[in-house]
Amino acid sequence: MYSLIQQENNIKYIINTNETILYICDIDEMKIESIVREKWGSMKMRVLFTKKDSEPTTKQETLDEIIKNRNDFIHKCEIISSTLQTNGLFRRTYNNLERQYFNQFLGSKVFLECLENQKYNDDESIIKLLEQETPTIYKLLKNLFHNEKDEVIENFIAWLKVVSFKDKNQDIIWNFFGTNEEEQGQGAGKGVLITLLNKIFSGLVSSVSNTTYQNNFNSNLMNKKVIVFDEVDYKYLKYENIKDITGSPVLRVEFKGREPLEAKNVSSWLMFSNMHNLHNKITSDDRRTFLIRPNPKNGSLKTIINKDYDGDFNYFKYSLHDEIENFINIIAIADDKVKSPLEMTTQAHRDYFRQ
Fold it and tell me: Any idea where the domains of the chain sit in the sequence?
């Protein structure tokens, strides 16, 4: 039996039921470190080792050996990422069976408080609230949703409502893409949006690329709220694969050297590309993916920062992050019925297909 020499109340050691990832949670610092199984053999801990009828001895042992054998400090739990459950360890009993969970999203307290103590009234205009209560975020969204009606931005907020307050997958995708071969929408704020989402959903945002989105070893998608597919190459895009992943409530997860498992799919996808040509992968009658063209002028976000934030990007970023709690409160009162591209046609869609 392995035991800790000194147990720290603020540190919890969690392992998932598939025994592939060890989570070290610092409750005081609100931080989680995840260590994949491949690294366990190279990492050691100073622990007490007790044999039957023997006195405990101190050992410097690998994580791999500790996890393989009995220990009294690593909790085996079902790992979830939920904005609607308390963070950290908790238990649920159903049909007399007690199950232990670990919610790795440490920011759930803010989301739960927004639901319990609504700051804004349900009948208030989402656009007006964004403009008044989160002016920096509003400017970012207006720049990204260049030339689009307010209803399109409201639909994006509805999409964020599902991300924020529904632990479920969405088959609606937002695709931000270039305008033409010369002006690709550089500086429109796509990277800033990704950074903002990372700040809001800390630890629940994951990225895929043209080489990894169809990779069999997809554990990086498990329990993630937002999946960012950046620099999409439409020429080689296997769009059907994306539709299969986003349309299923269950995600088949594979780890190297372990049997695959099925996990609840809670992801919503964003796609970004500077390419203009969709290569017929997304058609005019597509019901899944919204087409959005950010402000096509190079340095467009820089223009906003120069005008309203003294040319200081850090000032702009601070203002952006300072509005997050208000932004979550606005999302909390939004409609969660996301319209499809068949119900709402974007201007970018009309321009691209010349409708």
Answer: 2-106, 110-353
